[in-house]
Write a structure and sequence with these properties.
The protein is of the alpha/beta class and about 300 residues long. The chain is built from eleven helices and 14 strands. β1, α1 and β2 form a beta-alpha-beta unit.
Length: about 300
């Protein structure tokens, strides 16, 4: 018996897999290719080649597992239907067992808010508006012990959304500068990927059924502060270049841009209180200035 994990080769999922294996947990990971299977097996996990859209396979693996941690998503227009079908397939395998199911949400579902808590009203932008209908199914499930994790903007190991600030295309004009998202006045809720991975495992082990946890370090810098840290890390003397909403949408796509333009702050207190979670990774500003995102001389 093992934990059935989806998204195990992705940014967050690979961190979850590493920590599960460091704890000696048995993991069965769903992957889409032999190359990805080899990476999973090199970490001592079991790989199953398939796709999250294969509902029969998902149900079979859920039945055979001790529980499920779900991190995979197409990340496109099919995401709602794929996620909905996946939840149905998992529940077909878990219902009546009281096994654990940890499902992934995201911080953007709350919209702009200066103090987001798990019970704050939701005001999702179009890119994540589809989530709530499925998440209600997860939280209200009977015969399955469910927890919802809503990651903040995830950073670490030089990857994730903050890599937008070090893409090598530093604005325009005579002096190079890191391009901001909008004017940079909005705050982002942030979390280091390794801290977030620890939260997923704690939620799997200790979360009460129907619980929701925001994965947030409590550090909520402005995008301008993030951009200035990135510029410093690239040797650009903290030079940044603001953009209009229209310029940001043209560069990043309207829906993604509108999510990144949200002004959000959160403390992530519930996970600390209920689960004993203690995020202690570096801050996003330190990572950009001198850590994994900084230019190596």
């Amino acid at each position: 018996m093992s934990i059935f994990l989806t998204g195990a080769t992705g940014f967050i999922g690979s961190a979850v897999l590493r920590q599960l294996r460091l704890q000696g947990r048995d993991v069965t990971a769903l992957v889409r290719s032999p190359d990805k299977a080899a990476k999973i097996e090199a970490l001592g996990a079991t790989a199953v080649i398939g796709d999250i859209t294969d509902t029969e396979l998902v149900t079979e693996q859920a039945i055979a597992s001790d529980g499920v941690i779900h991190l995979a998503s197409p990340g496109d227009a099919s995401s709602r239907d794929v996620d909905d079908a996946f939840v149905t397939a998992v529940f077909a395998g878990l219902e009546g067992s009281d096994k654990r199911y940890v499902h992934t949400s995201g911080i953007w579902v709350w919209g702009s808010n200066p103090d987001i808590a798990e019970d704050s009203p939701r005001n999702a932008p179009p890119i994540t508006a589809w989530r709530w209908e499925i998440e209600k199914r997860v939280l209200e499930a009977q015969g399955v012990s469910t927890t919802l994790i809503a990651p903040a903007v995830v950073f670490g190991h030089g990857a994730g959304i903050p890599a937008l600030f070090i893409d090598g295309e530093y604005g325009s004009g005579i002096a190079p500068a890191v391009r901001l998202v909008g004017d940079g006045s909005q705050h982002w809720v942030t979390v280091h990927v390794d801290d977030l991975a620890e939260l997923y495992i704690l939620a799997f082990d200790l979360g009460e059924s129907g619980s929701t946890y925001i994965g947030a370090s409590g550090e909520n810098p402005t995008v301008r502060e993030i951009g200035e840290a990135a510029a410093a890390g690239q040797g650009l003397d903290s030079r940044v270049e603001a953009q209009t909403v229209e310029e940001t949408r043209a560069r990043l796509g309207e829906q993604f841009a509108d999510a990144l333009l949200l002004d959000q702050q959160a403390r992530g207190s519930a996970a600390r209180i209920d689960l004993g979670w203690e995020p202690n990774g570096p801050s996003i500003l330190d990572e950009l200035r001198t850590g994994s995102y900084a230019a190596k001389n």
